[in-house]
Amino acid sequence: MRVNGQAHRTIWLKAGEPDCVQIIDQRFLPHELVIEDLRSVEDVIQAIAEMHVRGAPLIGATAAWGLYLSVVQQPGDFDIGKLKQAGERLKAARPTAVNLAWAVDRMIAILELANSDFTDLTKREAELICDEDVEICRKIGEFGLSLISDIAKQKNGPVNILTHCNAGWLATVDWGTATSPIYHAQQQGIRLHVWVDETRPRNQGASLTAWELGEQGINHTVIVDNAGGHLMQQGEVDLVIVGTDRTARNGDVANKIGTYLKALAAFDNNIPFYVALPSPTIDWTLGNGELIPIEQRAADEVSFINGYLDNEQVSVRLTPGNSPAANPAFDVTPARLVTGLITERGVCEASEEGLLGLFSEKIKHD
Amino acid sequence: MRVNGQAHRTIWLKAGEPDCVQIIDQRFLPHELVIEDLRSVEDVIQAIAEMHVRGAPLIGATAAWGLYLSVVQQPGDFDIGKLKQAGERLKAARPTAVNLAWAVDRMIAILELANSDFTDLTKREAELICDEDVEICRKIGEFGLSLISDIAKQKNGPVNILTHCNAGWLATVDWGTATSPIYHAQQQGIRLHVWVDETRPRNQGASLTAWELGEQGINHTVIVDNAGGHLMQQGEVDLVIVGTDRTARNGDVANKIGTYLKALAAFDNNIPFYVALPSPTIDWTLGNGELIPIEQRAADEVSFINGYLDNEQVSVRLTPGNSPAANPAFDVTPARLVTGLITERGVCEASEEGLLGLFSEKIKHD
Q1: Which chain A residues are within 8 Å of B222, Cβ to Cβ?
Q2: A132, A166, A189 — which closes off a domain?
Q3: Whole domain around residue A103: which residue ranges?
C-alpha cells in the first residue's frame, strides 16, 4: 500500500544486497518511518519477538526470510540440523500465531527435499510465501468487498466499520486481512468511515491502523478500546472486521486481546462481526479455540506506554511503582459470536462445516 | 481511607481558613499527592470540569462546597438569584452524573428557606452531604461484604474481583462505592485480589484505583481494558463490582465507558456483575438508561496520554497528527446484564421493582 504516495510492501530483499532483508520497524510508527536491515536469523528472531514486525501473516513471511538468511550465512556448509534448530527458535519467538510455524515448516520441507541450490531455493520459497500472501489478501479483499457494498446499498452516508488492533497491510506483506475489503471498497468509490480501536497495551490501532488508513486517505476516527460497545448501541457501527492470529478447526478465533469483548457487543446489537484470514492462519489440528496457546507478554507493556514528546519517542509510566500488571496478549472469540470468516476462497460460516466447505482437502477420511 | 498510613477524606474545609476548601488534585496521582485550595465557585467549577475531582458522589459533594464558597464570597450581600446561577454553572460542569444536580438542588432548597445565617447553613449542609456520603458508602460496604464472603466460603484461594474505572474512596468522600465491600472484606480478613481495569482514556483505574488499593494494602493487578473478558473466560474472575454515575428508574446504569463490555463478558461467563451506588445516583425521573445524557469529552484525551518520565508528569502523543479521535466518556449497561444493585439500604435486583422495594417512598401514587 502507499506510504507518502509510494507503493510499499512490509518486507523485501534489499536491492543489491542478497544477504540483507529489510522491514519497516513498526515500533516507531506513526511518527517515524524506520527501515531496518536484518542480516541474520538472530536479527529476525529479535524483530519478531520484540515486535518490530507483527501480525500473523507478516511474522510468517519474516520467519521464512529468517531461514533464508540462515542458509545465506552458511553457504559452503549446509546443515539441515542447524536450520531446523533455527526454525525451532523462530517458532518460539511468539507462540499464538500459527503462521509462524506454518512458514517455518514449509521452508524446512523444501530444504529437506533439496540437494543443491539451497540459497536460491530458500530465496524463491520466501518470495513465493510473500507473493502468495499478497494474492491471498487481495482475494480476501474481493470477497469482503461484497459485505461492505451490500451495506452501502442499503444506507445513506458512509459505511461505518469498526476494527481492532492492526490487521492491515502492516500485518501482512500487502493489502492486509481486515483492511483489504476496506481498501477494495475505497477503490470502488464506496463511502467509508473506520472506527479504529487504539488496542492497548501496544496501541497497534492508534499507531499502525490509523497511520495506514491515513496514508491511503480513508476517513477514520481513533477510539479507546472501551468505546466500541457504546458506539454499537448508538447505531454508529454497521460492520466489524478483525483479523486473527490462529483460527481453530471449529471456527473459534484467537485475536488480539479485547476482540472477544467487541464480538460480544456486536452480537448483542445484531451487528455483523466478520473475521478476515488467510488459510495459513487456520490450525486444522486444533478442534477448538480453548486449545490455542495465549502469549503472556511483559507487564511493562501495561505499566508503561510509548508516545511522542517533542518529536522523540519516550516511554512513560502509567501505574504506581508497586502495582503489578498482567498482560495476556490474545483472547479467543467463540465461533458462535462470529458472523462469518472471510478467506481467500470466499466467505463461510465460522464452523468446521463452513471451513471444510471451502477447504475440502482438509476433510479427514477415516 | 489511608494515605501513607494516615486517615484521609477526599475533600475538607481547610483548618483555620473558613473560606478555603481543600481537595486532592487527582490528576497527579499515583505519582504525586497534590492538595489543592479552592477559594471560589469558579475554582470549584474548574476542578469538576477538568477532573481534579471526579466520581459521581465526590463531584456532588464538591458542588455543595462550591455553593458554600459562593455564599462566603458575598456575606453582606446575599442574593439567591446569583447563587442559583452559580448552581446552574456547577450543574453544567459535567452532564452525566446526576449527583451534581442533586447536591446543587439540595443546597439551593436550604438557602431558599433561610432568612439568615447563610454561611453557617450552607457550611452545615455541605458537611452533612459529606458525612452522609461517608455513611452511605459504609453501608454499601456492609451490604456488599456478604456477596464477597459468600464466594470466599465456597473457594480456596483469594476472591478475585474485577473493577472498572475508580469507584473507590477517591470517587466519594470516603470508603468508595465499588471498593467499600472490598475494604470491608479486608477488615474481615477475607483473602482478596482485585483486577484493576486501567480505564482508558484517563486511566482512573491504573492511576487511582491501583494507588488507593496499594495504600490500603490490598493485592491487585492492573490490566488493560481489553483483558477482562479473557480473564473471565479463564475462570480468573469471581465477581465484578463497578460504580455508576447515573442509574435510571428501571435499573439501567450509566458508568465509565467500557463498563457495558465487561457486563456483557460477565453475563456470557455466568459471573455476578454488581453495581454499587448511593441513592443520590438514582435518577428517578428517567424511565430507562437511553435517556441518560452521555458526556463527549475532548479528543485529546484519546490522542495524548499523561504519564511519568523522570519523576515529571508529561503528556505524550499516541496517534498520527492527522487522525481524528472521539471520546464518549460513559456508556449505559442495560439492567438485564446487572446481577444486582448494592445500595445503602441493601442489595436489590436491577429493576424498578427492585429499587422501589428498597426506596418505597419513590413509589408514584396516581
Answers
A1: 302-303, 319, 323-326
A2: A132
A3: 2-132
Question: Where is A163: in which H helix or E strand?
Answer: strand A159-163
DSSP letter string, B163-231: E-S--SGGGSSSS-STTHHHHHHHHTT--EEEEEE--TTTTHIIIIIHHHHHHTT--EEEE-TTSHHHH
The minimal CB distance from A224 to the residues B201, B230, B330 is found for B201
- ipTM value of the model? 0.96
- For the entire predicted model, the pTM comes to 0.96
**Boundary (domain end) residue, out of B97, B132, B167:** B132
pLDDT, tens digit, for every residue of A177-219? Answer: 999 999 999 999 999 999 999 999 999 999 999 999 999 999 9
Query: Which residues of chain B does A207 touch, with a Cβ-Cβ cutoff of 8 Å?
Result: 318-320
- What mean pLDDT is predicted for residues B264-284? 97
Whether residues B38 and B159 share a domain: the answer is no
Which chain A residue lies closest to B218 (C-alpha atoms)? Answer: A323
Count of helices and strands (H, E) across chain B:
12, 18
Which of B221, B226, B259, B330 would you mutate first to test chain A, the one with the most A CBs within 10 A? B226
Q: Which residue of B has its CA nearest to A309?
A: B316
Residues B128 and B146 in one domain: no
Euclidean distance between the first and the last CA atom of chain A, given in angstroms as a whole number: 44
Q: Which residues contact A107 (CB under 8 A, 6 or more apart)?
A: A63, A64, A67, A68, A87, A122, A125, A126, A129
